[in-house]
Design goal:
- The chain is mainly beta.
- The protein has a single domain, classed as Porin, CATH 2.40.160.
- 8% of the residues lie in helices and 70% in strands.
- It has an 8-stranded antiparallel barrel.
- Strand 5 and strand 6 form a beta hairpin.
- It is elongated.
Length: 184
């Protein structure tokens, strides 16, 4: 039993030494683009799903830890408030994010990752009916987290699948996305 623990620990330690875009080495940089489904949830309000996108870049501090920053748009979502059927409303949330990304290489091409970061967001809300229209905006920052997997296609090209949860004020946002990542 004890030998199995040492074997697993040894395999894990050996896997951390792989260098590729899937597990970038110290000093490696990368950039990417994400596209995916955005689900927003707010108490008492129905918000339609949208398509969101993100551009990002990162810098690997070592084989398992990177810093990533980017700009994200969660799309322009229509919303309805029960009891106000004659009101047309929408919300658009965008922001800049910075995150710490932890990589767990599974082999030389595939890795799992987790991230935690800070989103500096701006929400624009607009509503209108036959009497007129109104709009409001709110700006703040909140913590977010996510998990995903990355597969290296070549030495400098990888694809990712990920899920992130953002809590922006009273709205929880889930972003399920696919990404292309370019190493350089």
């Amino acid at each position: 039993m004890m030998n199995k623990k040492y074997l697993l620990a040894g395999l894990f330690a050996a896997s951390l030494g792989t260098t590729s875009i899937a597990a970038a080495g110290a000093g490696d940089t990368y950039a990417g683009f994400s596209l995916g489904n955005v689900s927003q949830d707010a108490s008492g309000i129905n918000i339609d799903d949208t398509i969101g996108w993100r551009i990002f870049g990162g810098y690997a501090l070592n084989d398992v830890l990177a810093i990533e920053g980017g700009y994200i748009s969660f799309g322009d979502a229509d919303l309805t408030v029960p009891g106000f059927s004659n009101v047309s409303a929408s919300v658009e949330v965008t922001g800049f994010e910075i995150a710490t990304v932890g990589n767990l290489p599974i082999n030389s091409q595939f890795s799992l990752f987790g991230k935690v970061g800070l989103l500096f967001w701006d929400a624009e809300i607009s509503a209108s009916n036959s009497s007129g229209s109104a709009s409001a905006s709110e700006t703040d920052s909140d913590v977010f987290f996510g998990v995903g997997g990355q597969y290296e296609i070549s030495g400098n090209l990888a694809i990712r699948g990920s899920w992130e949860r953002y809590a922006t004020g009273d709205i929880d946002i889930d972003f399920l996305s696919a990404s292309a990542v370019f190493g350089f």
